[in-house]
Amino acid sequence: LASGSRSGEVRIWDLNSSQLAFTLPSKVRGVNNLAFSSDGKLLAVVGIDPKVEMWDLEKKTARTITGHTQEITSVVFAKDLVVTAGRDKTIRFWNADSGALVKSLETASEINGIAASPDGKLLATANADKTIRCLNIEGGDIKQTLGGHAGEVLAVKFGPDGNSIVSASAD
């Protein structure tokens, strides 16, 4: 389990002992979101700063990935990619191993949250314009735009089968 705080502190917890395992000296201001790679070896940290900190948890070293121009609200791993989104109305896809930018997509709205489908093929976005967009990760094309919320959509999550999405909003 990893936790981040507005102070930038990132803690890794041992759930077997319910104790703090170690603290990472993160330089991300105001942590908004964290994501583990599927093998648990990498941890991506994002926050108010427009940068991604990619931690190698075995070595306890980090590299910084830059490219966003405003606050990053969300991060998720999708297969061999790290996907980030935020206030600059972009979704950025990074190679998880090298940190190289693979592609960047402009969006119609600020993004409050993202989720990858269990198979890593789809990305759902929780948008400030009260919508949820579902897009194909490989091509970047929008497959669906879902409405119905009266307020900003704050978070999204795929169901275990990848065929359903749950959302939380400000309405």
Describe the structure concisely:
By secondary structure, the chain is mainly beta. It has strands at residues 2-4, 10-14, 19-24, 31-36, 42-47, 51-56, 61-66, 72-78, 81-86, 90-95, 101-106, 111-116, 122-127, 132-136, 142-146, 153-158, 165-169. 0% of the residues lie in helices and 56% in strands.
Radius of gyration: 15 Å
- Based on DSSP secondary structure assignment, what is the total number of beta strands? 17
How far the N terminus sits from the C terminus, by CA atoms, comes to 30 Å
Strand and helix order: EEEEEEEEEEEEEEEEE
Q: What number is the mean pLDDT?
A: 95
Main beta sheet: 4 strands, antiparallel
Task: Tell me the layout of helices and strands.
Blueprint: E1 2-4, E2 10-14, E3 19-24, E4 31-36, E5 42-47, E6 51-56, E7 61-66, E8 72-78, E9 81-86, E10 90-95, E11 101-106, E12 111-116, E13 122-127, E14 132-136, E15 142-146, E16 153-158, E17 165-169
